[in-house]
Amino acid sequence: MNNVRKNNFQSPVPKFTFSKDLDEQKIELQNNSIIERFSLSRKNLSKDIHRPIYHFVSPESTMNDPNGLCFWNGYWHLFYQGYPVEFPDKRIEGRNTRVHWGHAYSKDLINWKDLPYAIYPDPEESCFSGATLVEDNRVIAMYHGTQAGNMIAISDDSLLLNWDKLTGKPVIPILQPDGKEWPYRVFDPCIWKKNGTYFSLSAGTLPHAPTGKRTRANFLFKSNDLINWEYLHPFVEGDRFTLIGDDGACPYFWPIGDRYILMFFSHMSGGQALIGDYDKDRDKFIVTAHHDFNFGAFGPAGVHAPSATPDGEGGVISIFNMNPGMHNQGWDQIMSLPRRLTILGNNKFERNMLKIEPAGNIKSLRYDHEVIKNFILEANKDVIFNKINGNAIEIFCEIKIKDSPMVEMNILRSPKKEEFTRIIFYPNRGYRDWDRYDKWEPKSRLEASSGLISIDSSYSSTLPSVLSRSPETGPVFLEPNENLRINVFIDKSVVEVFVNDKQCLAVRVYPGRQDSTGVSLRSQGTSSEIIKLESWRMKSIY
Fold it and tell me: What would the DSSP string read from start to end of 62-122?
């Protein structure tokens, strides 16, 4: 039995062959029909009041997982599951069906330019998620081709415009030659190279876990030529963190400092990462820590799948797609801002903690700077800052909390609070860190507890079509004398909050009122001191 379904999966989307030289490619792109189509589509979709202006959004139709983020020939390249308009979904107006790899590039990870679709389906039905491996003279893309298996395509031109599929068929097919299933799952792969040998993780679950339920797994393969792949074993050891029912979709495995990180997506509980050490003798990943990228279900309005690549300086650049909280005609999902992940420190606590910072040239977007310094937030009073407002802005705030049990920032606030989004910090109200104290006195115990950062979008919208999301709440450990520092990025229908470079939360919001642009702060119980509060309006990248 043939393990590839014999359908005609050739795509009718216009496909082009480009020159290899960068200058020639840029000239060819100027009059490219797909680029012209994208430009017109962006112009039409920009009329939607909820469409972001400085987060990447697909130029046409909807989008899904980011794929194959990489740096090549002086540019960052973002690939994503794109849905060309040639395949309308008969079930849902404004949506399309067959996935191609969409493509954009950037000098600075912020200002993205559209490129034509990169990888087209055939013999697979759709080009699902995967990763890239950058070599000296080429870029290898390994991804899941639906109805076929894991595929490999290769490009070596300046802007990665021309892709050729290795062998023209799956290198790891879904089924055995006789049509039977394998003892492993063939799904979203990632790829890396060790001592001249290629390795790949195929995502999925163990179908017969000791619990009797499916359990997250990643299946390890190796190859010397990218064509013939040998299955080795499940890759991860010591995972005491993920939940029964999690799967390991969209894996990315990279060094981070002197350790390793395995990022993935669970269709049950969202974006996550495991931190640990790579036993290269046994080809096993020994897990010591875990990090969530969303807290609660990934939908509606939560963080979805990652794409990640080394930054060349010991860190990892990651980006996520985010799920919608309402239906927008012609589009819905978006990309998060890129994040730089590093290991926070070298001691026994910090070597298991991620440092999370906004990545890329965010400064290039800023204008209309406002700043307030050394301002006392009196207890239990909402303080509205009239000069700091907008629905496409960045806010930075440093607060000395003192003894307040809660500090709250309201953004996207209408004058009478018909709509508002709450960003709340609770000092020392989270999990205790048992390793950080060895006494049982209440004060010592409290100081070794994490704080909690929360985005509550319960009152973000008065529109009846918006799906509610429970408050997104994550832990963040502050030292006893450490001020709270938050970076808030507001972009029409997305809010991202970075906290002391130790945590990041992101949610989708959909204000229905034009006057929902205000910002206020409140210190509950006792006063707090604003060391600095500043904001910038943000330019469109389109």
Answer: -EEEEEEEEEETTEEEEEEEE--TTSB-SSSTT-B---EEEEEEESSSSSEEEEEEEE--S
User: How would residue 5 be classed by pLDDT, with cut points 50, 70 and 90?
Assistant: very low
State the distance between the two ends of the chain, measured CA to CA, in whole angstroms: 49
- Report d(CA 478, CA 499) in Å as an integer: 10
Asked if residues 436 and 541 have their Cβ atoms less than 8 Å apart, the reply is: no
Number of separate domains in the chain: 2
Whether the pLDDT of residue 522 is over 50: the answer is yes
Among 301, 325, 358, the domain-final residue is 358
User: Looking at residue 35, what DSSP letter applies?
Assistant: H
SS3 content of the chain, % helix, strand, coil (to 5): 5, 45, 45
- The pLDDT score that the predictor gives to residue 76 is 98
- DSSP calls for 212-268: SS-EEEEEEEEESSSSS-EEEEE-EE---SSPTT---EEEEEEEETTEEEEEEEETT
CB 408 within 8 A of CB 423: yes
Domain of residue 498: give its range.
366-538
The pLDDT assigned to 96 comes to: 63
Mean pLDDT across 97-122 = 96
Question: Rounded to whole angstroms, how far apart are CA atoms 442 and 233?
Answer: 47
What is the percent of the chain with per-residue pLDDT over 70, rounded to a whole number?
A: 94
